[in-house]
Here is the input.
Amino acid sequence: MAETSEARMEKTIAALKDSFNAVRTGRASAAIFDKVRVDYYGTKSPLNQVATISVPEARTIIIQPFDKSLVGDIEKAIQVADLGLNPSNDGKVIRIAIPPLTAERRKELVKQAKATAENSRTAIRNIRRDGNDELKKLQKSGELTEDGLKQEEDKLQKVTDKFIAEINKIYEAKEKEILEG
Here is the structure.
C-alpha cells in the first residue's frame, strides 16, 4: 500500500519541480522554455526539439534553430508563451536578454512558488488520506489485523513526512534563487 502511495507522491514532487523550472528568476535558464511549443510543419513541437538553447552569459540566452526557416515561428512562440521576454533575431539566431527582476516582481514570484509548494503538500496529504482509507478497507475485510493497520499507517505517515520535507527543501531553494537572482 505504501508503495503505490509513494509512487504517486514522487509524481507530485516531479510536477512541482517542473512547475518551478518554468518560474523565471533573474538568471538565464534554458528550463524557462520547457513549456514553449513551436508550430513545426503543422505539429506543436517543444522548442528544445527544433532548436539549440544555450546560455553564454548569466543574462543572455541564444536559441539557434536547426531549420533557419523557423526563426520567425520560434520568436512568435516565445512571445505567445507570455514569459515577459523580448526575443530579437538576426535571421539566423534568436537572442534574448533576461532583464533583472524588480523587488516587487521577486516578491510576487516567491508568493506564486509558495502557493505551488502548498498545493503539492496538499496533494501529498490527499494521497496519504487515500492510502489510509484503503488500509481501513483492508482491515474491515479481514485482510489486515488491527496491529497491521497501525503499522501500515505509521509507514505511510513516515513516507508522507519525508515527501513534505522534500517539498519544503525544493521550495526554499527556489525562494533563495528568486530572491538572489
Remarks:
- The chain is about 60% helix and 15% strand.
- Strands lie at 37-40, 43-46, 51-57, 60-65, 87-89, 94-97.
- Helices lie at 2-21, 47-50, 71-80, 103-140, 146-180.
- The mean pLDDT is 87.
